[in-house]
Design brief:
The complex is a heterodimer of chains A (213) and B (589). With 213 residues, chain A is mostly helical. In chain A, 49% of the residues lie in helices and 0% in strands. With 589 residues, chain B is an alpha/beta fold. The chains are: A mainly alpha (213), B alpha/beta (589).
Amino acid sequence: MRLRRTDTGLTLALAALITVATHGIAHAKAAAPASAKVCQGCHGVHGEGNAPAAIPRLAGQSAEYLRKQLEDYASGDRANPIMKNFAKPLTHADMEALAAYFSTASAPRTAIPSTASAADLDFGQELARQGSEVKRVQACDSCHGPDGVGVLHAAPYLAGQSAEYLTSALTSFQQRTRKNDPGKLMTSVAGQLDASDIAAAAAYFSSLPSNAP
Amino acid sequence: MVQRLKEVDVVVIGVGMVGSIVAKELAAAGYKVVGLERGEARFTVPQFQSPAIHDELRFDIRKALMQDNTREAVTFRNHSSETALPIRRWESFLPGTGLGGSMVHWNGQTYRFQANDFELATRTRERYGRHFLDPDVTIQDWGVTYDDLEPHYDRFEYLLGTSGKAGNIKGQVVPGGDPFESPRSREYPTPPQKEHYSGAMFRKAASGLGYHPFPQPSSNLSQPYTNPEGIKLNACVFCGFCERYACEHFAKSVPQTIILPVLLANPNFELRTGCQVQRINLDSTRKKATGVTYIDAVGREFEQPASLVITSSFALNNVRMLLLSRIGTPYDPTTAKGVVGRNYAYQTMSSVASFFGEDVFINPFMASGASGTLINDFAGDNFDHSGLGFIGGSFIGAVNTNGRPIQYHPVPPGTPSWGKGWKDAVVKHYNHTVMFSLHGSSVSTRQNYLDLDPTYKDAWGQPLLRMTFDFPQNDLEMAAYVTAKAVEIGKAMGAKQVAGSPRKGPYTTTQYQTTHNTGGTVMGSDPGTSVVNRYLQSWDVPNVFVIGASAYPQNASWNPTNTLGALTYWAIDAIKNKYLKNPGRLVSA
């Protein structure tokens, strides 16, 4: 029971609603704190990320999610030597300010042509929307929202995120170097996927337009 | 024209929780097993996935996962003097249909009954005297004891991966668990789910009153788990869509997540869906079953011969299958003779709502089906009933569950039932109310029973099951007593207003209570008062086993699923290790 990748009418309508729900209540644009300069070096002036380098887009990601990642880099629950160096010296207030800034940042997305095959993108979409009984994974969109737009307080957006970054994030859950998922949910899911499943899901989400401003 | 199929070793009627387990065990032991399921095949992917599965109108209001009562209903009346009418819309109880059965839409509450429950008649007489109860109450012992079932409870809980905290391991009381529970051989497979704020408030208040709070045992799992069948489950995400829904996260223990992948991979097993079994066929002696007759989804009639027939459908349908097949003597309430349909019992549900100010946030939408905090101080025989005039009790628990927008609107008594006043009250109280669930026992009585309806038939022309039921006075008195205790806990929590709703009669099928219908093919040691023996084998036709909550002689203070899982493993052990080695009666009458 494959879904067609072009079957997006209702989903887009739902996505628009959820976008309003999650982003409509975002705070007014926060000013860039001085400490943001360091982030901007890699994540871009507007938090647009650097897709080929697996550096994620931060613009419009929820402040709650971004703050938690900074805390978890600092504590080691999300193991990453580079981010640990940056996160460790930050105070709680610094983290709050950075998260607030990037959550309201605008960064037009530069689409990067995907090298994934149409079959991979189709399979990625199937995992995203429907999951797999054989792999025993639920639809990514169950938590990440319709077409991966993200759900405030629950799960980050995936739509328009760097495929390289998504691959690295899923692999880090799989290898348990990232242990900051409630209920080990992403650890369970990633553990059921193989490298080609991960590549397909990452390519699919990366191919979607970002809902972020 | 009836098509006669090739004989198999075993035919299983209903591939739900019980059917999946027995079929898996027998297929693994090398027997050819056919599973006949009237509903459709369905799996976590794609059928249970969101957003479709979170459609409250479709699943909650229109009951999409339930038995199709335009084709197969149950008729109901309160008293045998009345004319029963078909239940056109399920409300009071919700029998499921389809692969995985009613367990697919359960809440995951996974309690054991207590040792006392299995010897209720004897122990009640011993403790309170021979004349304590109304002579119309027909409670009886089960013919099995808690000690018989303990290893099977254990096996079933480990199949499910149940999340909880033991209160008594091998006779040693364990802090943090339920001190009233009968001894278990080891800890739960996974730790309890997280406690809600409402549960924490309940815990504090109940402890302050000298009671013994513990975390609700849940089969919506607290962490990833791999069961002894090698199947992996995920942790629950507290989405709040459990009861009446299927779980999209592989996090609720249902046949699809605990056993069906292993069963369906076994070539000794064949699943046939869309098959409506009409009857179990008997030979001319009427002491031996020869198989079953069923009609498939396009109306073709088949005879499936089998050496062993196991009926493992929903409790009410087990009873109906025996009545339609004329196995055992139907119960007659005027003479109190006969056994099939006798001792139908239910569950006596009450509730208490505690209304807080707008500075207390409960977040009822954030829940699993069993993430509560409870006490058993007023359940079963855990308190002295001397002078009270009733037996039984209820657990009391603050259970955040099912806080969905269409169905969940707690408002204080006196609120208008519609219009602006009602809407304002819903907005004001939705997020600031703690609901207690009071889950009460149900005694069986001479007047409450099941039989075949003389008027109404199903889509295949067979008589519907007729239910004759009202709440026994014993249970209404119990509900009033325990509800008053629960109101005191709500007050001790500091609620501004506490509203107790003890269950009151008459019983109505138009208001949801619970799907814990029990009895009708009860187990026991006397063929005069039971349909099946202690191994759930028919007294009359020894190659028929009837496995379901229909075997319960009366219902206890807890949800029945775990006990049914234990009985299933108990029965299948007897079938594999005793019956199939030497087919015949396992207990002499």
